[in-house]
Every structure is written in C-alpha cells, then in structure tokens.
Amino acid sequence: MSFRIPCPQCGERSVYEFRFGGEYSIRPQPGADEDEWYQYNFVRRNEMGSQTEWWYHRLGCRQWLRAVRETRTNKVIRAYFPDETEQTDRGPGES
Amino acid sequence: MAQASPSEGFSFLLNDKPIQAKAGDSIGAAMFRAGVRVFTRSFKHHRPRGLLCVAGNCPNCLMNVDGTPNVRVCTTPARPGMRVAPQNVFPSLEFDVLAASQKFDWLMPVGWYYKTFTRRPVWNAVEPFIRKAAGLGEAPPSIDRFSGEDPDYEQRYVHTEVAVLGGGPSGLTAALEASRQGSRVTLIDEQPQLGGHLRFTPSDAERRRVLAGQVEAAQGVEVLSRAQCFGLYEDGLLGVVQLPRDGGEESLIHVRAERVVVATGVIEAPLLFENNDLVGVMLSSGVERLIGLYGIVPGRRAVIVGDGPRAGRIASLLKDSGVDVAATVRPDQVLSVTGAAQADGVRTAGGKIPCDLVVVCGHLVPNAGLLHQAGGSLDWSDENGAFLPTRLPPHVEAAGQVKGSDLTAAVPSPPAYPDSKRCYACLCEDVTTSDLRTAIREGFDHIETLKRYTTVSMGPCQGRMCQISSIGVCARETGGGMGETGVTTSRPPNPSISLGALAGPRHPPVKRSPLHHEHEALGAVWMNMGQWKRPRYYAPEPDWSEQRIVEREYRAVRERVGVVDVGPLGKIEVRGRDSGKLLDKVYTHRFGSLKAGRVRYAVICDETGTILDDGTISRLADDHYFLTTTTGNLEFVVQWLEWWLVETGWDVHIADVTGGRSSINVAGPKAREVLAELTDIDLETAAFKYMACRRGEVAGAPAVLLRIGFVGEMGWEVHVPADYGVHVWRSVLAAGKEHGILPFGVETQRVLRLEKKHVIVGVDTDALSNPYEADIPWVTKLEKQDFIGKASLGTLQSAAANERLIGFTMLEDGKVPEDGSSVMLDGRPAGRVTSARYSFVNGTAVGLAWVSDELAEEGREIDVRVGGKPARARIQQAAFYDPEGRRLRM
Hints:
The complex is a heterodimer.
Chain A: E1 4-7, E2 11-14, E3 19-23, H1 34-42, E4 50-56, E5 64-70, E6 75-80, H2 82-85
Antiparallel strand pairs in A: 1-2, 3-4, 4-5, 5-6
Chain B: E1 5-14, E2 17-23, H1 27-33, E3 40-41, E4 48-49, E5 62-65, E6 68-72, E7 83-85, H2 112-116, H3 120-134, E8 155-165, H4 169-180, E9 185-188, H5 205-217, E10 221-224, E11 227-233, E12 237-242, E13 251-262, E14 266-269, E15 281-283, H6 284-294, E16 301-305, H7 308-320, E17 324-329, E18 334-338, E19 345-348, E20 351-354, E21 357-360, E22 363-366, H8 369-373, E23 377-381, E24 386-390, E25 396-398, E26 424-426, E27 431-432, H9 433-441, H10 447-454, H11 467-478, H12 482-485, H13 499-503, H14 516-521, E28 524-529, E29 532-538, H15 546-559, E30 562-565, E31 570-575, H16 579-586, E32 599-605, E33 611-621, E34 624-629, H17 634-645, E35 653-656, E36 661-667, H18 671-676, E37 693-698, E38 701-706, E39 715-721, H19 725-736, E40 742-743, H20 746-755, H21 790-798, E41 803-810, E42 822-825, E43 828-839, E44 844-852, E45 861-866, E46 869-875
Parallel strand pairs in B: 1-7, 8-9, 8-13, 9-10, 13-25, 15-21, 16-17, 16-21, 30-40
Antiparallel strand pairs in B: 1-2, 3-4, 5-6, 5-7, 11-12, 12-13, 14-22, 18-19, 19-20, 23-24, 26-27, 28-29, 30-36, 31-34, 31-35, 32-33, 33-34, 36-39, 37-38, 38-39, 41-44, 41-46, 42-43, 42-45, 43-44, 45-46
Helix pairs in contact in B: 4-5, 9-11, 15-20, 16-17
C-alpha cells in the first residue's frame, strides 16, 4: 500500500501521513431502530470499485477529509473537506 | 583496469589469516587473488562452492563480514581491517564434516521434511541440528535499541520525475534523454561505477567513459551508486537499499517517481549438467568481471561450454590473458564435470578434457522481476528465447536487454537437461534436476506448487540463477511449452535485504516531562509509558527493595502529603459557544449543563458502547472547557473530537495543550496546608469543594487547579505553563518540607488508586468493556437526546452482562497475584486479574478482575493463581480504602 492522497489543503501526499477512518456512511438519527444501528455499526459495503472513505491527515493539516478511492487500483480519484463539497459532490455509495 | 591502482595495498582478515587487497578490490576478488577458491558450503549437501557470477546474484559467496551475515563478498568492496568468516561450516571451509551428508542424500529426498517428520517429538528432537547445519549464517547478537551499540540504519526519501533502474548503456541513455527533456532524474545503479557490462569489456571502455561522463555532467541527474531497487510499489514508490562507500550498514531510500524506466539488463544463469556446481565452474560474465575489473586470471587451462559469438569472445579474452583454452564444447556435448571438490576436467562423449577452469556461457535471462512485480506480465517469446515484459502499467517502461533487445534464442525451448542427483538447478537450496523430476511425478507439476514443494527459487538468489532452468525442467517433464508453464509470481523484496534496513534508524521518540531533570536529581527509577519516561518511584538508597520504597511513598500520601508529576496526562482545551454540545455528543455524561467551576469524570464510548477513554472535564468558563485524557489516548481523543465536529457548523476550537503545561498532583491530608502557602485561592471546602476547579496563581505562576482524587486523598491537580513547572515543583517541595512531603512515582500511584478501585482504561478495560460491566454505570446518561454509543448502551443496559469487573481481596497472607493471572473456579479458568497490588492499609493484596456475571457476587470466594497455584480471595465490590470518599471531601 503506497498510494497517495490529494489532500485539499496540503496537496498530493503519501498515504503514510494519513490515518484511515473507514468507509463513509451516514449515522442513523437518534431513535433509529436496532437494525439501522446494526447496519451502521457492523456491516461494511467493502465496495469493489470506487468507495468513499474518511481519512485524517495526521502528519499534515490535521483535518478530516473524505476521499473517493478506486479499491481495485488504490487510485484516489478525489479528496475533499466534507463541509465544502457536501451538497454538490457526493461520492458513489452515499445515500 | 580503471578501478585497480596497485600502488595502494591493504589487508583484512579471513578468519585469522590476513588477506592482501588492492584498492578497488571486492572482498571476493582479493580472496580469489590470494588463492582462496572455496567460499561457501552449500545449504543442504555442504558441497564446496566458489565464485560463479561475480555479480552479487548467486549464493556462492555469502559470508559473514564484521558480524553481518550473508554478505555477498564478490561485489562488496574490501576495506582495511574488516573481518570475514565463513558460515555454517564445521570446522572449516576446506574440510567440512557435514559434507558427509551428500553420502546420505537418499535419506533426504525432495520434501523430506514433510515425509520424515510427521511426529512432533521426532521433529522437536532433530530441529536444532537441522537449523544449525542448514541455516544461512547467524543473526547478529541480540540488539538492544537503547544501548546504542547495534548497527544503525538510515532511511531517506527522494522525490523525482524519472527513476532509471540500471547503470548500463540503456539506463545511461534513458537518463540522458530524460534529462535533455528537462526532467529531474534519479539513476539507481547496483555497481560502484556507472557503465554496467561496459565496465569489463575492454573494447567498450571508451564508450563507457563518454556515456558515464555525460550522465555525471547532465542537468538534474542524481546517481545512486551501489543501490538496488528491491520493490516497485503502487503509485511510483520504489524501495531502494544503498550501501555506503565507506562501509557500514545499508540505508533504505524511499524513491517516489512519476515515471520509472527499468533497464536492468540480463542475468547470466547456469546451464544444467552433472557437477555443474563444482568449484572452478564459472559463468562467462564472472570470468569477464574477474579479468576486466580486478585483473585476475581465474585459471591456467580452460574448457569453454557454449557456442556462437559469446564462446568466441570469451575464448579470445582468455587467450589474451594467457589462459590455455583446451576446448570449446557445445552444452549438449557435456556429460559431466569431473573432480572431487575442484573441477579437473570436462567429460564428453569423446573423452575427458583436463582443465582447472570451466567457463559456462549460460542462459541470458532478462532481469524483469521488478516489471512483473509492478503489474506487468512476462510472456514467453520463442524468437528471443526469453520471458519478456508486456502490458506494463502506464508509468513504467522497459529499456534495453530486459525487454529482449539483442536476445536471440537465449534459451532453447524447452532446454535439455540430465536427470542427475549432482546436477544442481537451484544452488541456494541444493535442489537437483532429479529432485524436480521426483516432485513433478509426485504431482507438484505446476510451477507454483513445484516451487513451494522443492523450495527451488526460494533461496537468497530469489530465482536469479534457477528460475529459467526450473521452468525448463517443468516444461519438459510435463510436456508443456515454456510459455504454458509460465513464471512464478515475483514479489518484493528481490534481491533480499536486511531487516535492519527496513526497521530503520534507532531513534525511538522519547517524551520527557518539563520536570524530568528534577526527578533525575531526586533519584527517580524510570519506566516507559508509551513514549514518555515517568518515575516509577524514587530510590532513597540503592539497596532498598521496591516494596520498601513504595511503602515509604505510600505512607507519605496517606498520612501526610505527596506530590506526583502527571505531566504525561493528555490535556486539551475546548473553546467556543458550542463546546458543551460537542462534549455532550462525544462523552457519555452531561457537560453542557456542567456549571462553570465544576469538574466531572468523563468517559468516551464508541458506537458499540465500548469504553475508549476516560479523564476529567473541567468547565473553566461558559465557553471554555479543560479536558484531561489518558496518556496513550491523547492523539486519538483529539482526532475523535475533531471527527464529530466535522459538518456540524458548530463554534468549537480544539487545542492539544499537553506539551505546553506542567502538571502535578498534590495529595494527602496536609495538601491544603502546603498549597495554601503558595496561593491566595481559598482552598477550604466551603469555597473549593471536591470536584471543583479554579484559576489563580500558585507560587506566582498562572495555574488551573482541579480538586480531584485519583489517589483517594484530598488533593489538587495543578496545571501551570511548562516554563513555570520546575519553579512550582520546587516551591511545593519546599512548602511541604515541614509536613514531610515526598514525591511519589507511578507504581505508588497505582497502589493508591487500586485501593480506591479507580479503573485505568486500557489496563482494567479492554476492547470489549462497557460501562455497565466495568461497574461504572453512572457515567452513562441515557436520557440525553443523543451521544456516541447511546443506542448500543441502551441495549446493553437491559441485556444480561457477560462479565463483570470486580474487586477482590486475597485471603492468604503474602500472596500477590501478577497482573494477568487467571481466576479459577473449581479448578477451571473463570476470569482474569487486570491489576493487583499489596495493599498497605488492608495488610493483604487487593485487585481488580473480570469474572463471569454469575460469579460476580459480593462476598463470594474465588481462587486466583499466584505463582502457578490457586490462592483464596474474596470478592468485594466496595473500595478497599475509604469507600464513602470522606477523605476526598475533608
């Protein structure tokens, strides 16, 4: 694993500067039923293809970002700060 | 030649014997010149082996150099005073009793491990002998990374536009061309001198000089000499090891390149005939290197095995060097090489031709392993007689002979070979053609299973010498073609590299509290806590026992006053209008409603209800909180808070201030009197309750004071800017002198807190512990609208617990269980101890343990293993000391 992530703040950086935060998924609303929590807590899509993920740039700007990664090639297609692109730039697999 | 200047001589030691060397000599060259012919004994049969490739490819010259095992001495430069020794020989290279193993090779057929040692006791009995006989060198003596005596390995990072692998003519041309186009180029070359094979063919000397000169003068070209790329990873990362010019350990270079040009050329691999491994059998390029690089003539009378222009070229080189060329024979005419250890002739159908040197014009094999690793395919070409790289990833290119240029029918398809127990396909692991045949007949007829079963191509040369011939044998035996048989998967690292290079430099990061030198002066005995150095306790006299020291510190805290450095605690400032909202979301308890001036115990759970961290949260002002975390979890807590802040739009600012504060805890019945001398803050309970916080001055330094009680006595945590730390620490010790104050360490603190049953997250809890089972249910506020873990905790609250964290007191005197001991019930394991210490107040050991829910009954007796034997203990849910917490509120 030696791919790079284009950090929107710092530019293209080695993956070793980042901490992986898992697949991006939407947290259920308070009061959601048990099955929704079960899905959120324990079930991963593990997409073969492009997958949206959380990454934290711990040896850089120390910010959380989301990255769309092609899991077959480890090519990161884009990375963005969620607040900035949330409305217009949803990745595949996001509801 | 260019490298050798005979005027400068020096010597090094082979065992205890001095070997004379010339400047520019490799270790192996100097040894050869001094008359050494046997360099190693083979892996399994302990056959003598000598120089073969002189290129660092084969396993025949692996020796121990200055304590480092498996050094390829044929290419490693000699240095004055170095100590060289053979590996795995008994007693010596010349006479190795283990060579007798050849006589018994019928006992060791291919796969004999699997066939012979089917019973564990048999294997256990013979393993030590096999390891000693068949090992590859010996690892250097144990390495203590703090002693400073182990070898140091550097790591370095290089970013470039074009990386070129190989310093031969194709690599040099590629580097020049890239440089002309304006690219930054990093040229990675194995040899000490550019030029590749041009270095040792006299007619190419001028071409080499011109090309190398151009590259050295070219704009933006960095040359890494004596460096090998062992892995081509995704996104243009190259793993490179480089040997320094002046000896010492290799360094690991992480090269990141936009484009990679692989110009690694060809490797000459041995041909298959009986006794093809005898000393005196050399590859033609090895002979060329000995003559061309070191001016060494390797024999007096030679037989050349080969045909065509290569055989002609080597024949005239040998003649020019004064060697009598007895004959040139085609490979298929060779029946065997004769000789006991050293070759003394070549046997053909026409009879024996005596000689002392057999020069083999071996198979030329494209050195394409890196291209295969990088994702390219290797496809067989009948025309070239080679596996050639195709379908390369977009940023990787091949140049020169590695892609088949100038190669015509390099290997016949498939090559002929004799079936012999002395025809070695794999020199590293002593796998013969007979072994390969047997394995294929036993059903291992796929090249990948053949490799795993026989270990062919799995030794130090990583297939460089044997891959093509093992494919050839497999193809011929199975009736498939070379292409159909295919190559085995190429994986990094190839070539093999030392683990030390991967481990990197000896720089474990160390964190020291601002009070570090104060502790040192007070006789601190250190312990490592994560990256922090913390005083375990302070030894008043060198001969005091741990128990005696801890009791002295303990009694000071319980009876008078003590002070402990809590600098390593994680400390975070959270500011902003919406801080309370964020803390309410992340922590299980309520913090939005915490009054300014109050402190609360704080726990973080994950969404499944597992405890992640604990600490305290103090509200210094409406929009200003001060958080402490466990030492090891600081970075995690900061990231966790930041994560849950994303996309909320809340006004919250999180700052890690750990390094900027010096923090101490002053605790004990006299703590108030000591601190009162240093501050104007009213410390009486009426004005400063338990679990309250104030800002003010302590010894003139701006301070935050938290009245909390981890150790179970009245006490204050005092946080001041780090620069004031030493001053405040000394002031506290001075003010406490008349009260008998003592500094105490982590071990004493652990006893104190355990008597209060205060849990340490990560010690007493693990990745499955939730607040209900850990007996701190009151930290969860399920009536809050939402927080991380609420849904799961709601389920867990009403679900039956699996296990519970309980307290216990030992009923037998003098029995102190170790942390991690098992809890027994009726002779069966029923739980585990997380912490246990001798309790001075109870006069017996106390501890915390996880036990199954049905066991967790007040007063129940259990067994805890102490020193391998069960000892009686009783479950006690209340704290072992001051269960009502009166002393905290005095």
